[in-house]
Amino acid sequence: MFTGIDEVDWASLRHAYGSAEDVPGWLRALASADTAERATALDGMFGAVHHEGRVYDSTLACVPFLFALAAREEVPDRGCIVELLVSIGGEGVGGAEGVGGPKGRERAAHSGSGGGGASAEGSGARGNPRSAKAPRTAEAPGIVRNAENPRDGGTPRTAQDPGTSDGSERDRRAREAVCAGAGVFAALVGDPDPAVRRAAAGALVRFLEEPPQVLALLRQRLRAEREGCVLLALTEALGLFAHRYPAHADGALDLLAEQSAPPYAPGLRLAALGQLALRAPGRLPADLVPAAVQLLQQRSAQRLRRQEQAGTDTLVRRIRRLRPSDEQGAMLLRTLHSALGDRVDDRVALLTGQLTSPDPVDRCNAVWMSAGLFRGWRGAYDGPVRLLGAQLGSEQDRLRDAAVSVLAELFALAAPAADDLHALVAARPDLWTHRWERSSPTLGGPLKALARTGDPRAVPPLAQLLAGPSAPVGLGCEVAHLGRAAAPLAPAVRHRLGRVPLDSPTAARLAAPLLTAVRAVRDRHAVPELLRLLSGAPDGLGARDAVVGQVIETLAELGAAAEAAPLLRGLLRTRHAVTAAGALWSADGDAGAVLPVLLRELAQPDPLVRASAARQLAGLGPAARGALPELRRLAGAGPLRERVPAACALWRIAGDPDPVLPVFRYAWTADPRTRAPIARCLATMGPAAAPLHDLLVTELTDPRRHTAQQGAYGHRDIPDDEELLWMCRGVLAGL
Predict the structure, then answer these.
(1) Three-state DSSP string of 510-565
(2) Contact by Cβ (8 Å): 150, 17
(3) At what angle do helices 228-244 and 211-224 cross, to 10 degrees?
(4) How far apart, in whole angstroms, are the C-alpha atoms of residue 43 and residue 554?
(5) pLDDT, tens digit, for every residue of 511-533?
(6) Phi and psi at residue 681, in whole multiples of 5°?
(7) What pTM, to 2 d.p., does this model score?
(8) Are 129 and 92 a contacting pair, CB within 8 Å?
(9) Which sign, positive or negative, has the C-alpha torsion 312, 316, 318, 324?
(10) Structure letter (DSSP) for residue 124
C-alpha cells in the first residue's frame, strides 16, 4: 500500500498549515486497526491536506496511496477514503451534483430533522463529505489548532490558498489523477463492505469516463444489491449518470422508472421518483404528489416497526427515542422538493401530506423543508401555515421548536397560526424568554412569532416583560411589528429609554431597539428621552454616537425636530450631517441652511454617504434644484445603490421621468435589492410610471422571491419580498 511513500519529499510539500511532513503518518494511520487513530488521521487529511476542499501539492501526492488503501479489503473505513478521493477529484459528496442537480436545486432550509443549520436554495461548493458518513472525533474536520499540527490550533496559511491560477491548475491535475485511478471504483462497487459500495457508486459515475461500462456496472449492481443504503446511492448515481451523459440517459432513466414502481421498497421508490423529477419530469406519474405522500407514510411505518422490533434496550436506543431523526427520509423529500422547483402548488400539496403524517419525525422534517419553500418562493401558504400552527401543541419539544422557528420568519404570513401561537404563549410563560448560557435573555420564539404577526394579543405578555427587572434587550424591535396596537406599551418603553446609562459602552445596544419601538408607536411623549440621548453632542456622545442617526430620524418622524434644532446644527459638521440636515429641513423648511450641507456631502468619496445625501435631497423637492447637475451625474454612472437614490431625487426635485425611468429599468433587472426603493419612488409618480408597467406585472407573476439568494438568507427576506409585492400592486393601481 505504501510502496514509494518514503521516496516522496514530504517536507518540501505543503498543506493548509505548512509543511506536509506529517502526511505520511496520517496515510499509514488510515490503515490502523485502532479506530481513534484512523479517525484522527482522516481528520488530518480533511483538515489540512484537503482543507475546505482545496488541493495542495501534498494532496496530489496522496492520491496514489489513497487508491491503494481503498483497494485493500483489510483496511477499515474505506468508504471514507473513497469519499475523500471523490472530494479531491473535484466533486464533494452532496455538492455540485449531489442531491439536487446542476442548477435550480434547493437544499433543505435546515438539515433534516435535526434543524441545525439553515441553507438557502442553490448549489453547494466542494466540501467535506464526512459530515454524515465518516466516523468522527470530538473535533469537526477542518477545525484545527496549530500551524504545524492541525490538532493543536492555528489558521491556514493563505499563501497556500489554491484559489489562484496555481490552485486551478492543481484542481485540474487532481481530477485527472482521480480519473486515472477510476478503475478502482469499478471494482469497489461490488466490494463486501456496504459503506464502500455506497461511496463507490457515485465515484464511478463521476470519474470513470466510459458511459456504457458505467451503466452496465450500475445495472448489474442494482440486480444484486440488497443493502438499502447502497440501493439509494445507486439510484442517485443513475440520476447523476443521466445528467452527465445525455446521449446514454435513456438506459438510466428506464432503470429509475422501474425502481419507482412496485415491488421495490417505498424508500427506494421515493428516491427514484426524486431523480426522475430532476432528470426527466416527463416520465413522472400524473399522481406524483399523492404517490409520494403514500410512499412516505409506508416507509415511516416500516421504520417504526423496525424500531419496535429492535433488540436490547441500550442507552443509544433510549437517546434515539428521545431525539428521533430520519436524515435519510429527509434527504429523499428534499430531493423531490428541489426537483419540483417552482411548482409551488405541488410542493404545498407535498408539504401538506408531510405535515399531516402520523409520524412526528416526518412532520419535523416537513417543518424545516417548509422554511426553504417559504423563503424562496411566493405562494398561497395559509394551509401549510395552519398546519405549522398545529405542531405547536406537540409534546415533542423539537417539533414544536422547529415550527416556532419557521413561523417567526414569516412575520405577517404567520397570521393563520396566530391562534395556536397565542395558545402556546398563554400556556407556557416560561417560553416568553430564552436565556443563553452567559448571555442576556432574549425574547422567546412563540411570543416573538406572535408579535411579528401584528396580533394585539402579544401586548399583555410583552407588557409584563417590560415591567420586569430583566426585559430582553431586543424586545423593542418586536414591539414595532405591532404598530399602533402597541400604544399601551409606550409608557414602559419610554421609561426604559430614559434609564439607558448615557456613559455606558452598552448605551447604543440598549437604546436601539427601544428607539425602534418609540418610532413605531409614534410616542410624542418620548421626546425628552430622545433629547437626553443627544446630550453632549457633538463631542461627548461616546457609545451613543452609534444611534445618533436613529434618534434624529425618530425625532423627525414624530415632528419634534424643531425641539432639537440647536443640537442638530451642532451635528452638521459630523458624520451625522446628512441626517441632521434632513431633520432641520423637516423642522423649519430653510433650504438655505441645509442645502449647502447636503451638496457638500453629495461630493464625499464614500458612496454610502452620497446615496444618503441624495435621499435627503429628494425630501427637499424643488427647493433642491441646485443639486440637479450633481444628481444627474450620479444617476448616470456608478454603483446602482447610488444611482437609484440619485434618480429618485431627480424625480422628486424636477418631476421629469425621462432621465429616471431608464435607470430604474436597468437597476430593477441588474440588482433585485434595488426593487423596493424603486417601487417606493414609482408609487409617487402616478401615470408617469406607466412605461415600467411590464416590470411590475412580471414581478407579480414571478414565483421566485426577489430576496432569494444562493447559499444565504436574511431573517427579513420574506417580509421584504411581501412588501415589494404590495407596493407593486399599489403602483399598478395608480397608473
Answers:
(1) HHHHHHHHHHHHCCHHHHHHHHHHCCCCCCCCHHHHHHHHHHHHHHHHCCCHHHHH
(2) yes
(3) 160
(4) 53
(5) 999 999 999 999 999 999 999 99
(6) -70, -40
(7) 0.84
(8) yes
(9) negative
(10) P
